[in-house]
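call fold(seq) -> tokens
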Amino acid sequence: MDKGIIAIYETLLDAYGPQGWWPVAGSYHQGDYGYPRNEEETFEIIVGAVLTQNTAWTSVERTLKNLRRIDALNPHKILALSLDALKSAIRPAGFFNQKAIYLREMADFFVGLKGRTPSRKELMFVKGVGNETADSILLYAYKRPEFVIDAYTKRIATSLGLAERKAGYMELKNLFESNLPRDVAIYQEYHALLVEHAKRFYSGKARASSITFVDFLREIL
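ret:
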């Protein structure tokens, strides 16, 4: 195991504390890994994972409020809504024409599961679901140990020299998973902590070049 990957996690956790991802009904649940508690919350997380593609979470929160206001955070309600009504509700999340279709596809898929947990392969066949969305759904909605790689994670990993800049999604996913215990709580917190750190220190063009682990620690401490 690469002890540096564990050290990074422990340092971030000490610095920022538990993040409580994924927020359900607008509430973060730091240190509580019992979410989701029912199918309704599972589907809300899935909807959030689809909506957050290429947009900020603050925009997703506004969109979820819109869907909650019209009682449409439910797969059957989404399927019953007209396409125009769905597009209007999710407009704050951007790319609403595409995402309305993706949400319908996901709602139909979710209903067809009849309460069982989907495989990663099954999720990847759903229109609009790629590696990051599939892993987010499995990790946060179904509490399965699938490490999520996003742009922030890649930026930090490559900046620290943990991986080459040309490294693909699955290579980075394997890097983290092979150097961490298969623990859902750790996977959830690590992903969220990397995002929190990157927002503070790796936004825009910051940290385009490699830094040492010592420099990384100084940033936080």
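Residues 35 and 41 are 8 Å apart (CA to CA).
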